[in-house]
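ugh ok so i messed up the first submission bc i forgot one of the chains. this is the corrected input, ALL of the components this time, i swear. 913 residues overall. if the numbers dont match what u have on ur side tell me asap before i send this to the collaborators (the ones from the other lab, u know who)
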Amino acid sequence: MKLTKVFLASTALAFAAGAVAAEDMTIVSWGGAYSESQQKAYHEPYMAKTGVNIINDESSNEAVAKLRAMNEAGNVTWDVVDVVAADAMRLCDEGLAMEIDPDTQLAPAPDGTSAADDFGDLLVSDCFIPQIVYSTTFGYRTDMVGDNPPDDICDVFDLETYPGKRSLEKRPINNVEWALICDGVPADEVYDVLETPEGQDRALAKLDTIKDQVIWWSAGADTPQLLADGEVVMGSTYNGRLFSLIVEQGQPVDMLWDYQVFDLDGWIIPAGLSEERKKRALDYIYFATDTQRLADQAKYISYGPARKSSAPLVGKHEELGIEMAPHMPTDPANSKTAVLYNFEFWADYRDDLDAKFQAWLAK
Amino acid sequence: MSELKGSGQQTSDAPTPEDAFHEAATLASREQTHAPGATPDGPVLAADGTPLKRSLNRALRMQKIRALGLIAPLLIFVLLTFIAPIADMLFRSVENQIVAETLPETVEVLADWDSDSGEPPSEAVYQAFYVDMFLAQEQKLHTRLGSRLNYEQTGMSSMFRKSGRRVGKFDTDTYTDQFTALDPSWEDPASWVAMMDNKANRAALPFTARSWDRWVAYLESEGDDPAKEDIEDFLFTTLYLDLVETGGSGTADARITSAGAATGDFETVSLTEQFADADKDWVDPEIWRVIKAFAPKYTSGYFLNAVDMQKTPDGIEARPENQQIYLMLFKRTMFMSLVITFSCILLGYPVAWILANLPSRTANLLMILVLLPFWTSLLVRTSAWKVMLQQQGVINDTLVWLGLVADDARLVMINNQFGTIVAMTHILLPFMILPLYSVMQTIPPTYLRAAKSLGATNWTAFWRVYFPQSVPGIGAGSVLVFILAIGYYITPEIVGGNTGTFISNRIAYHISSSLNWGLGAALGSILLAVVMLLYWVYDKIVGIDNVKLG
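and heres the new structure output, hopefully the right one now
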C-alpha cells in the first residue's frame, strides 16, 4: 500500500515536472526589429494570457536546412517557425511542415468572415499562415538624383539620367522580372516569357546593361548601409529596412514604390511534433494570427498585415507616433503597380534560373 | 661481446657498415636463443611456467587494450561526431533511392519503355504511376519527389504538386461504381481483408495484391484499421486491370470470378488522358526520360552536375555554356587560396622574424597585436574592411584628399577579387605568423653570427642559413592557411561581389537554401578530394615531416 503511494506520488511528480517543462515553447524568427515587433504584438500578450513561456530562437535564416536536419534526426525542437512563403512551400513539399486548415484552425475575422476568405489569395501553401506582407522595393538618395527623382522602375536601368552604382539582390528572383518589364514585356506576360530560355537570356541581357554598375547584396542590411554611405544611388531591399533608414535614422533617402514585389512572411508548424506540442503550437497560431494581433504588429514595424480585416485597424507607430498606413507597402498609393511574388513559378524555376544567373554573374 | 668481435674479424679485417649490420643481426638472434633461463632444447619459460613469449605477448596485449581504453573516449567521439556525419553527408552525393521507393511500380514498368522512341510510354506505365502517385500523395511523398526531380528537369516540382491534388479526383470512380453495381459487398473493406488473405486470390490478382499490401502498410503506420477504411478508387482500378489480364482464373472466390466475367463489358478509363488532363506535360517523353534516368538507387547525376556535365539520352555531355559555373569556381577557389597563402607568407614572414628576434617583453606585446584581430568577431573584421575599402570609404577618401585620385575616379577595391584577397589575408594572417614564429624561435641566433663571421653577406647568411631552417614553419602555415581559405564562405560572400566568391558559397547555397544536399555533398566531396590530392602532392614535394607546428 505504502509502496503504491510512493509510486503514485512519484509518477504524479514526474508528470508535473513534465508538464512544467512542456510549458516552454520555442518560436523561431528572424531576430532584430522584426522579432521585437512579434515579441510585443504576439508573444507578450500570449504569455500573459496562457502562462506559456516562449523561448525565442533567431534561426529563420537557415530554418529550412535546420528543420530538415532535425526531421532526419527525429528530434524537432522547434514549435513554431517564422519563414517566408517560398521557404514554407519548400518545407511543405518536403513534408517538413504540417498542413493547417484555415477554416477550423484559425480565428475568423471579427465580422464572422472565415479565415480562408480573410487571408484570401495569400494562403499560398497548405502549411503556411501568412502574417505580414512585405515588399522588395527601391530606395534612392534624394541628394544624388538632382531635381528629377526617379519614379519608374526602369530608372534603375537608366544609367544616363541616374549615373552611379545600384544595389540589387544576388539572386534572379525579382531582378529578372524588373529587367523584362523594362525591356518592354507587359507585366502580365513576364512569366510566360521567363519560362522560355530566350526569355531568360533576354532578362539577363537587360541586366547586362547595368552589370558593371551593380553591387550585389545578399543580406537585407546591405542596401541600407550602402545608401547611408552614399555608395549607391539606388538599391533594392525590404521596405521595412528602408522605413527605418528614412524615418528612424533620417537619411536623405526616399522610396521608389514602382513595381514593388509583395512577398509574404508567416508561420509554419514543423511536422512530427507530439500531440501535446502540436496542440499548443496551434493554439498559439490561432491567437497570433487573429485580426487584432496582426494589426498590432504594424505598430512596431512597417509591414502590412496579411488579413484584409486588419488593414483598417492599423494605427500609429508606437514610439514615433506617425501614421503607419502611408508607409505600408499595401497602401493604395504605394501599390498601384505592385506585383505578388509568383510562388508557383519560382518553386519550379528557382534552381534552374539560379544556376544560369550565377553563371552569368561569374562571367 | 667477444663472440661478436670474433665474428667480425672472421668476415673481414676492415669492418664495413654491412658488417656492423650482420653483427647486429647475429647478436639479436643469439640473444633470443641464449637468453637467461633458457633450457637447451625447449622454449624460454616465465616464472609461472608458461612460455615467455606467450606471457610477454599477453602482457603487451593488456597494455595495448589499456592504452586503447584510454583513447577510446576520444576515438568514439571523433568517430561519432566527425567521421560518421561526414561519411553520411558524402554518401548523399550518390544516393538516389527516393525515385525507386516512391514509384516502385512505375520504375518497373518504365524499364521496358524505349526512351529514344520520342513517344510517351504506354498506358501500363500511367496505370502503375497512378497507383504510385495515389499512395505517395496519401503519405505526402509526391512533392518531395517532385523537388528531387526538379533539380534535373525544371517544372517537375509543380507537376507533382498539382497532380497530387488531382489524383484523388480522377475519373477512376467509374470502376468503383461498376464493381459495386455488380455486387455491393465490394465496398466492404472487411471483405477485402479476407479476400487478400487468400493465396489463390492473391495469385489471381497480383497487381491488386501488391497495391493492397502497400495500402495496408500505410494505414497501419497511421494507426488505422484496414478493415474499416473505405476502399479507394485505385484499388478498384488495379482489380479491373488484373481481371482483364487474368480473368480471375485460379481462384475459388465466386465474387472474383463473376466480376472477371463481367469486366469485358466495363466502361474503361484512360489514365494517360487523366494525367494529361492534370498537366499536359505528363505526355511529354522528356519527363519520363528523366524519371527513367534517375530510377536507379545510386546516381552519378550529382557528381556530373558538380563538374558542369549532365546525363542526356546520348550519354554524358557538358552542360550548356550558360549554366557552367562549378569548374570555374573550383579553379577560382584554388587560385585565390594560393594567392592568399602567398600574401600571408609575404606579410607574415617579416612579422614572425621580428617577433622571434625581439626581447621577449616587446615580443609579447607585439604578439598581442597579432592575436587581437584573431579574437575579434569574423563578421566585424570583414565589415570593417568594407568601411575601409568601399568607394566612399576611408582609403578612397584619404587618397582623394591627398589629391592622388580624382573624386569621380575612386578606386574599386571591394566587391571583387581584390577585396576578398585583402580581407581573407588579414583574417588568416595569424595562422601563418604563429607557426612561423614558433619555428623561428628555435633557430639559434648564433648560426647567423657564425655565418657572418665566416664572411657571408647579410643576404647570404639569411638565404643559406636562416631561411632553410624556417621552411618547416612556412610549410605548416601554408597548409593551415590554404586549407582554411578554400573552405571560407562568409567573407567572400560579404566582400567578394560576383568575381570574388568561392565554391563554398555555392555549397552553402545548396545546403541551406535550395536543399539540394546531393549536389552540395558532391561539391563537398570533390573539394575534399582536391585537398587530399594537394596534401599528397605537398608530401611528395616538400615532405610532411618538414611541417612543424611548434
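quick check: DSSP finds 14 helices and ten strands in chain A. that seems consistent at least. Chain A touches chain B through 35 residues (CB under 8 Å).
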